[in-house]
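Here we describe the complex-level prediction in full. Unlike the single-chain runs in Section 2.1, the two entities below were treated as one system.
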Amino acid sequence: QLVESGGGLVQPGRSLRLSCAAFGFNFEDFAMYWVRQVPGKGLEWVSGISWDSGNIAYADSVKGRFTISRDNAKKSLYLQMNSLRPEDTALYYCVRYSSSELIPSPFEFWGQGTLVTVSA
Amino acid sequence: DLQMTQSPSSLSASVGDRVSITCRASQTIGSFLNWYQQKPGKAPQLLIFAASRLYSGVPSRFRGSGSGTYFTLTISSLQPEDSATYFCQQSYSAPENTFGQGTRLEIK
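The structure predicted for the assembly as a whole is:
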């Protein structure tokens, strides 16, 4: 199970930190991603992190503003979102990758998401 | 950037029908193609990975095929619970895993 938290309403330019708690599997064995979805629209990968944080990737749309991190001891994934824009408004999913590295693999398991709304 | 294009964007079919959804990649991606099902208000769920491999617990009426740039998701005998939006996703360019725009399937 993956349980996201930290979403909410925030003004443009402000920051928000999302968290994802993992239950029921060996968190440290898997790479993790954040994937977002504007309600009723498509899916966009945001950021991925390998099992040991040795490899990290960001979509161009968030590069330089968002930071992904993980704490394997706490079985938790994080997304620090700075300089938020209205176009960042979306449901943010925490997703378990099927591989430990950021190599070609499917998104194996998804949390239920946390909604981020960026508006004045 | 590698683009994924699904068709149709929506379709309507009856219980028992055979339906197919296609996904085209803007460049060859081998078999690095996955399919997901998303029901309203729920998170996506993995159906098919590596173009044709059925994920654990997924009914055998779901079948994936294709390679290179052209892929198909086929549901052999549509059930009421198959009403959902279906997404394809390429992992060829991992970590930059991109999705198709989705196909909404309605059961008549």
